[in-house]
Amino acid sequence: xxxxxxxxxxxxxxxxxxxxxxxxxxxxxxxxxxxxxxxxxxxxxxxxxxxxxxxxxxxxxxxxxxxxxxxxxxxxxxxxxxxxxxxxxxxxxxxxxxxxxxxxxxxxxxxxxxxxxxxxxxxxxxxxxxxxxxxxxxxxxxxxxxxxxxxxx
Length: 153
Ligand code: RB5
What we know:
The protein is an alpha/beta fold and about 150 residues long. The protein is about 40% helix and about 15% strand. It has helices spanning about 15-25, 45-55, 70-80, 90-100, 115-130, 135-145, and strands at about 5-10, 30-35, 65-70, 85-90, 105-110. Strands 2-1-3-5-4 form a five-stranded parallel β-sheet, sandwiched between helices. Strand 1 (about 5-10), helix 1 (about 15-25) and strand 2 (about 30-35) form a beta-alpha-beta unit. The radius of gyration is 15 Å and the shape is globular. D-ribose binds near residues 68 and 69.
């Protein structure tokens, strides 16, 4: 996905990891559009999650990465937005499954939870693993119907 623009955002607790990820993927030709936060001043994670998720819902961007202290708050907020399938991931297997089975379009990380080396691996998997489709497509279709006034049947 080297030519695709991908969003990234964090709160103050995810700032350090966000900056490391931006630096790391730059060497691989991936441009991350950084929505902040840009300094260590305390910022409310819902504000950053909303900013990024709106751009996924509107199809302005197809992928994003959110980072807070645990990743929990960011994932709670992001998954309220139609079309956002945010996966809070801490290990490579889950990162792979999040793409192959769930077609996750937002990767959520806990800056105070995952080691930076692992986080880089998770980002790499997230960016380079394809959705398997097939039987997983009908399940994702059911997710996508939720909250749109249709029964998820
Ligand atoms: C900030 O202290 C912390 O609550 C936030 O980064 C996140 O972990 C929330 O889920």
